[in-house]
């Protein structure tokens, strides 16, 4: 389904190599799909290169550029051949995904998700105005030749003997330790056991430059770590803000619920008072009816009047 998400141009990283100078090249990523695509750039030599940005989101049918900077080197590798590699990973993400959401787990293939991977090799190019840098007798052309030294032939002989012992620290061939060891072991000048003054100064310069390059590599590593920590901090802050917003929403709902319950409680109290008043009125009405129970006054007056009339009639009748 996602056979080709992103097109990469160019397919190789080409650096113009100049001793003691940085070199950069730009790579363009072209999103050929209708989806949002996240990318991540990795390298086999993270201390030697700086990639900005090393992660990002590419919108559908859009492009994104990243720049790779090679740190300053003292000398090129043998035959200008570089074994460093880069890996560009791409995968489809949701539309609402932002750069801060990108993690290494997003490019994992464990869950069967499609991840496009493109390997890129590094090519070193000599400057157009400079001769091609190539090794001569095990020593690169930009290194000092010590022609003024009276022991020139003997020094070159020792270089050929120990040429297989060259070390490589951060892409720079380290010759200083070998030169010191050869001059001391073989005793180039039996009359003077100390190395020539010029050679000693060059060795010190070599050491200082090597130390500076190691410091630069550590600085780049610290910057990369600091950037990653800042990204993690941004993600944590965004997560905390989201949680705070959710708590505020729940608190607002709780306040609304409490307000509704208070209104219902007030209405219930009013209905209870009304019922109590109605009960009092009904009770008072029943009590009044009990007081009026008995013979009415008019009935008693009528009975008395009839009785008096009957007595009067009897008395009159007897008199007759």
TrEMBL record:
<dbReference type="InterPro" id="IPR000535">
    <property type="entry name" value="MSP_dom"/>
</dbReference>
<feature type="compositionally biased region" description="Polar residues">
    <location>
        <begin position="157"/>
        <end position="167"/>
    </location>
</feature>
<dbReference type="GO" id="GO:0005886">
    <property type="term" value="C:plasma membrane"/>
</dbReference>
<keyword id="KW-0472">Membrane</keyword>
<dbReference type="Pfam" id="PF00635">
    <property type="entry name" value="Motile_Sperm"/>
</dbReference>
<feature type="region of interest" description="Disordered">
    <location>
        <begin position="140"/>
        <end position="195"/>
    </location>
</feature>
<feature type="domain" description="MSP">
    <location>
        <begin position="5"/>
        <end position="125"/>
    </location>
</feature>
<dbReference type="GO" id="GO:0005789">
    <property type="term" value="C:endoplasmic reticulum membrane"/>
</dbReference>
<dbReference type="GO" id="GO:0061817">
    <property type="term" value="P:endoplasmic reticulum-plasma membrane tethering"/>
</dbReference>
<protein>
    <recommendedName>
        <fullName>MSP domain-containing protein</fullName>
    </recommendedName>
</protein>
<feature type="coiled-coil region">
    <location>
        <begin position="230"/>
        <end position="278"/>
    </location>
</feature>
<dbReference type="InterPro" id="IPR016763">
    <property type="entry name" value="VAP"/>
</dbReference>
<comment type="similarity">
    <text>Belongs to the VAMP-associated protein (VAP) (TC 9.B.17) family.</text>
</comment>
<keyword id="KW-0812">Transmembrane</keyword>
<dbReference type="InterPro" id="IPR013783">
    <property type="entry name" value="Ig-like_fold"/>
</dbReference>
<keyword id="KW-0175">Coiled coil</keyword>
<dbReference type="GO" id="GO:0090158">
    <property type="term" value="P:endoplasmic reticulum membrane organization"/>
</dbReference>
<keyword id="KW-1133">Transmembrane helix</keyword>
<feature type="transmembrane region" description="Helical">
    <location>
        <begin position="293"/>
        <end position="315"/>
    </location>
</feature>
<dbReference type="InterPro" id="IPR008962">
    <property type="entry name" value="PapD-like_sf"/>
</dbReference>
């Amino acid at each position: 389904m996602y056979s080709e998400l992103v097109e990469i141009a160019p397919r190789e990283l080409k650096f113009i190599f100049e001793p003691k100078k940085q070199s950069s090249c730009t790579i363009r990523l072209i999103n050929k799909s209708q989806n949002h695509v996240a990318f991540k750039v990795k390298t086999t030599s993270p201390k030697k290169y700086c990639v900005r940005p090393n992660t990002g989101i590419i919108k559908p049918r859009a492009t994104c550029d990243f720049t790779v900077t090679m740190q300053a080197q003292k000398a090129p590798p043998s035959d200008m051949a570089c074994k460093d590699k880069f890996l560009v990973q791409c995968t489809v993400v949701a539309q609402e995904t932002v750069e801060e959401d990108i993690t290494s787990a997003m490019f994992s293939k464990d869950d069967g998700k499609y991840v496009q991977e493109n390997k890129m090799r590094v090519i070193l190019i000599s400057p157009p105005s400079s001769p091609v840098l190539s090794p001569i007798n095990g020593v690169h052309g930009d290194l000092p030749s010590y022609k003024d030294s009276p022991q020139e032939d003997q020094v070159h002989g020792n270089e050929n003997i120990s040429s297989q012992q060259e070390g490589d620290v951060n892409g720079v061939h380290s010759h200083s330790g070998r030169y010191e060891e050869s001059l001391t072991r073989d005793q180039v000048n039996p009359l003077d056991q100390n190395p020539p003054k010029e050679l000693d100064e060059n060795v010190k310069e070599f050491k200082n430059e090597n130390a500076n390059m190691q410091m630069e590599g550590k600085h780049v590593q610290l910057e990369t770590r600091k950037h990653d920590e800042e990204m993690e901090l941004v993600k944590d802050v965004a997560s905390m803000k989201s949680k705070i917003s959710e708590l505020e929403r729940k608190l607002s709902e709780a306040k609304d619920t409490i307000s509704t319950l208070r209104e219902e409680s007030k209405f219930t109290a009013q209905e209870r008072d009304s019922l109590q008043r109605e009960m009092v009125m009904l009770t008072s009405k029943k009590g009044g009816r009990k007081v009026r129970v008995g013979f009415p006054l008019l009935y008693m007056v009528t009975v008395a009047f009839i009785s008096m009339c009957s007595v009067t009639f009897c008395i009159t009748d007897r008199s007759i």
